[in-house]
TrEMBL record:
Keywords per UniProt: Membrane, Transmembrane, Transmembrane helix
Coiled-coil residues: none
GO annotation, cellular component aspect: plasma membrane
Subcellular location: Membrane
Gene Ontology biological-process annotations: L-histidine transmembrane transport; serine transport
Descriptive protein name: Solute carrier family 38 member 5a
Pfam assignment, any one: Aa_trans
Transmembrane segments: 33-51, 57-79, 104-135, 141-162, 238-259, 279-301, 322-340, 346-372, 384-406
Amino acid sequence: MTEGDNFLPTKSNGNTETQFTDFEGKTSFQMSIFNLSNAIMGSGILGLAYAMANTGIILFVILLILIALLSAYSIHLLLKTAGVVGIRAYEQLGYRAFGPPGKILAACIITLYWFVDGRCLIIIVSVGIILPLALMKRLGYLGYTSGFSLSCMVFFLISVIYKKFVTECSLEHSYNETGVTESINNSTDDTCEAKFVTINPQTAFTIPIMAFAFVCHPEVLPIYTELKTPNKTRMQNVANISILAMFVMYLLTAIFGYLTFYGKRNFTKLLEMYSKKDTLMLCVRLAVLIAVTLTVPVVLFPIRRAVLQLLFPDKPFHWVRHISIAVCLLFLVNLLVIFVPNIRDIFGFIGATSAPSLIFILPGIFYICIVPEEQEPLKSRPKILALVFVTLGFIFMIMSITFIIIEWVTGKKTSGGH
């Protein structure tokens, strides 16, 4: 299949071939970008200024560019693998590569990773906002809410940039009742000097934060399925534009957040650094909450598909199953959030294993196992790169788990998460 081939097989010799999807793709190019960008975006953006403070501006930019390129290449591997076999779901690629165990593994990893994002949900938001949106039959319908979610994050970015120019620089900041910054005279000479390259004990902790900044891989194939006139080139363009947009947003947020607070320690979450009495930043907090909330229905689609593939692999669409699985997933997440006291540590460990699997390990393994050797020999350059990709994923996984264990032992918390 060439880069321009349609992903939906057409009629040939009067016979209708099995289609890639059970309905014609009707989602526009723009709406697909909104949905994928929304899937990429997460609360991890709040920790990027912290990452820049511990890497320096130049090193941060290099790392962010590298991660963005790796994520785009990972999606390329995923799309090319799916194109070879005409498969539309992550877990189905697992089945094609390793049979039932591969299908179960992929479905479990997708489901576990979503629970990491679901830890902040509350019952009212789940029932009143998330559940109705999650009951949509097609992912394309969420393009409008995804666009609104991205608008909220643009408002967040503009506010961070604005605050850079009205916030006085000092090592410590305090705020009076009106939210105006007051300087405390305990700063050092280099407090307000931006560092271009920084190496310290916290630098290594920032690598997993950035490595998982572009996670969207479970949503790629569902969005591909619903894309109007789908082909690999068109979907890769959707992915590239989405990653580029998030790259710009991440970079600007990190730079202006860092330049606002410079060397102030312990600003692991950017919004926590602003006054709680500042009206603008209170609105920004609300906007970020709305944005992250509207991300959940988009992320839930591949989770429900994974569950359906595990429990009802050969059943046609049915509203009862569609609704029941969404309700059960949200109910389970809320139970965990409410009744499990140390849920952050549990989800952090799950995220450290599932995120590198989704970004690096599984796409590389699927490519090596599914793409036939007649098309790509095992020692060909693409498959060698895929193997390097898999190795990189295991390195990130080991690093993340190691840092989590260090946090548990020392009691020191670092910023992270998607």
